[in-house]
Amino acid sequence: MSKYNTLAKEIVSYVGGEGNIKSLAHCATRLRFRLIDIEKADKESLLNLKGVLNVVESGGQYQVVIGNEVGNVFNAIQELYGISGQKIDTVEKDDLKVRGRFIDSIVDLVTGIFTPVLPILIGGGMIRALLMIGTTFLGLKSTDGFYIVLNEIYNAVYSFLPIYLAYTSAKKFKCNPFIAVVAAVAMVSPVIQSSVQSEEGLEFLGIKMLFPAQGYGSSVIPIILTVYFMAKVEFICEKYIHPVVKNILTPLLVLFITVPLMFIVIGPIANTLQNILGEAYSWLYELSPLISGIVLGGLWQVLVVFGLHWGIIPLGQINLALYGRNTINAITGPSNWAQAGSALGVALRSKDKDIRETAFSAAVTGFFSITEPAIYGINLKYKKPFYIAVMMGALSGGIAGSANAAAIAGGPVGILSFPLFVGEGFVAFIVSMVVAFVGSAILTFLFGYKD
């Protein structure tokens, strides 16, 4: 039996057994359980397992932090207990009810919608980074076939984002994901956009249609609200239409009702809300980029610990859609390297072989933006390294903020994403990352850890 099978069995046992698992998913470092009865979970026993870094309860989820090998443990649970991918993606209607704190419900909603699309956001962002390197340093031209093909990969993500969010939103709101995707494809239709924005405009049943100047291709809120409304319409159709004609009339009525209202009512309202959120953040940021960087840079990894950072991540995408720049990534990104630096400080200071290996591995993964191994495996465990990283995250965030640094695409912030920050404040951003990493490592080595 592999070590992953053994760990998988122990984890399932300590979360209350297979029968206590309502659903299961995983992100880059965590197994994310939704349990029927959370009281049946044995947190202390889970924390004592070799291979488990931490246990976090957040957003209605019971999260077991594994680190880089989470995918292997997840696959082992699937094989041992027959949990299918479809079951993992499914969210019961009861999960949509507010049964705990309001913030938990918001976090649960955002993570459920955004976590599945993170791989393509990261992939698209890294493609953009490669193109930036090519055009800046290697003489690549925008007319070259290589550039055109790779740039279309990036556009496939960031110019059609509502399509992917429609699918994950439909899973979250428990409606047909393919009907939701049809609505999203209509939302990003260049034919409708050009017609609405033409001099003549476009009317539907005598009602003039509106369209944001930048289109809906990179928008977030409009499609989420549209799919939420669609779920309500589909529920009514499923409940009241006779079974004989249900399969024919339900998709017809859902699309016929939802898509026009999406363009006439939901889209404009949601776009206004999105603009308000984006402008509100920009207003707060512009009051003092320095203070914004210090506050958000210092708090970011604390928010990560509690899973609350998911409430802020969509604002970054909204900023990209509105202004083409994401300052949130610039002022919070250095905190990743601050955590990595603290882990490196522990690795250099400790004389214990196991601690050195764990800490050094955590520092390396943090260098590439995965901070959970550093946070849960080392820094929180010994406390002072985490406090030092938070302090350096605040300092380095202030440096990046004061220079108005920003990313031009989404994705986590690490060594490979540096080209995304080329432009205003780029040098200051590089300085902030180095200060965060080196400063945390030195301070932790000197003051933050003793065997």
TrEMBL record:
GO molecular function: kinase activity; protein-N(PI)-phosphohistidine-sugar phosphotransferase activity; protein-phosphocysteine-trehalose phosphotransferase system transporter activity
Segments traversing the membrane: 106-133, 145-166, 178-196, 216-236, 248-270, 290-313, 386-406, 426-449
Catalytic residues identified in the record: C27 (phosphocysteine intermediate)
Keyword terms of this UniProt record: Cell membrane, Kinase, Membrane, Phosphotransferase system, Sugar transport, Transferase, Transmembrane, Transmembrane helix, Transport
Cellular compartments per GO CC: plasma membrane
Compartment(s) where it occurs, according to its Swiss-Prot or TrEMBL record: Cell membrane
Domain called PTS EIIC type-1: residue spans: 108-451
Keyword Cell membrane: yes
Enzyme class: transferase
Domain PTS EIIB type-1: 5-87
PROSITE patterns, per the entry: PTS_EIIB_TYPE_1, PTS_EIIB_TYPE_1_CYS, PTS_EIIC_TYPE_1
GO biological process: phosphoenolpyruvate-dependent sugar phosphotransferase system; trehalose transport
Membrane topology recorded in Swiss-Prot or TrEMBL: Multi-pass membrane protein
UniProt xrefs under PANTHER family: PHOSPHOTRANSFERASE SYSTEM TRANSPORT PROTEIN, PTS SYSTEM ARBUTIN-, CELLOBIOSE-, AND SALICIN-SPECIFIC EIIBC COMPONENT-RELATED
Name of the protein described by the UniProt record: PTS system beta-glucosides-specific transporter subunit IIABC
